[in-house]
Amino acid sequence: MNARKVSFLNASGQELSARLELPVNRHPYAFAVFAHCFTCGQTLTAIHNICRELNLQGIGVLRFDFTGIGESEGDFVDTTFTTNITDLEAAADYLAEHHLAPALLVGHSLGGAAVLCAAPRIPSVRAVATIGAPFSPDHVAQHFQEELETITAEGDATVSIGGRPFRIARQFVEDLGNHQLDRRIRDMEAALLILHSPQDRTVSIDEAAKLYTAARHPKSFVSLDGADHLLSDADDSHYAGQVIAGWSRRYLPVPEASPLRSEHNVAVRLAGEGYTTEVMVRQHHLTADEPVKVGGNDFGPGPYELVSAGLGACTAMTIQMYARRKKWPVEEVEVHLNHKKDYTTDLLESDDKHSKIDQFERVIAIRGELTDEQRERLLEIADRCPVHRTLHETVEVTTRLK
Description:
Layout lengths: L1 E8 L5 E8 L7 E6 L9 H12 L2 E6 L16 H18 L5 E5 L1 H9 L8 E5 L16 H7 L1 E6 L2 E6 H8 L3 H7 L3 E6 L8 H10 L4 E5 L10 H15 L17 E5 L6 E5 L2 E5 L14 H24 L5 E8 L3 H6 L11 E8 L4 H11 L3 H7 L10
Parallel strand pairs: 3-4, 3-5, 5-6, 6-9, 9-10
Antiparallel strand pairs: 1-2, 2-4, 7-8, 11-12, 12-13, 14-15
Helix pairs in contact: 1-8, 2-3, 9-11
């Protein structure tokens, strides 16, 4: 993932810590905000996995710590469920100012209840996904049921949640009871996806049934069968991310792209900005680009890197083909390459003959129980790979306008 640390201010002027995670091979076509579970924080491994799956489908994700959690400023004891909702609005404002307003909200557990409340207040939201969310926010009070009497009588108490101490104030408990989700869900215009595990021992799946019943269409439910509440198994969190990414494409503004077609084996297409280039090789799609330092987005390998990759692939295939024909025990071939000339320099100096000298450094590792003579022979064979020979021949390129 292409991730970077960012921050933004909440409604009280406190700085909230966040990470903005972007696709590595394209500009995101939409953005999402992720709300973590009660006291969890944005660093939970499951959140990372879900964000990765969204990134792979072209969605940028802002995941952040609520006020008083993780690296965000503020005291947790001063927060309420209402401040969680306003924190979500602040996150949406940050995206709207610096990128695109979020079209998707994803919330885990109490974070799921928070995104259901925040969605009607963020006009750009077109889809909402909840994971293990309760129907009633005050469901979270079961985490500190034994301390409720102390909190009510003394105004606050220190409770242990997940092995960590947190101070819970009376205002937090009272505020939870002030938010009833049935009306919020009924008035929500965004599409809703509810994910929940039948084996969830923290938030019963009965809560998911209540959410689904209260919501209006379009609404969907997916069972995370076998998962625990925190999606501790990586397979469960990756699956949840894949489902959210696939489902949300029905409702997010996915740009329409005309397919690249050609009667040739290879075709490329570059639009008017940057150097990000679509490459089609038969039915296979690739992305080529240039590094950021020369004006690219670094969404893919550069032209010379693709040439190096072709040389490396051809070298490995040629060695293995020869070894298999000879029945030599070659288990694996690795080819490591460097090209020593910068593409943009070559382009700018195309009239200078000295700029036409290219050098590929190639290092080959061959694994298997081979004799020294066999290894030397395979090294000779490497120089006979078709791409290697093409690079040593005089190459003619004919060009015409279409």
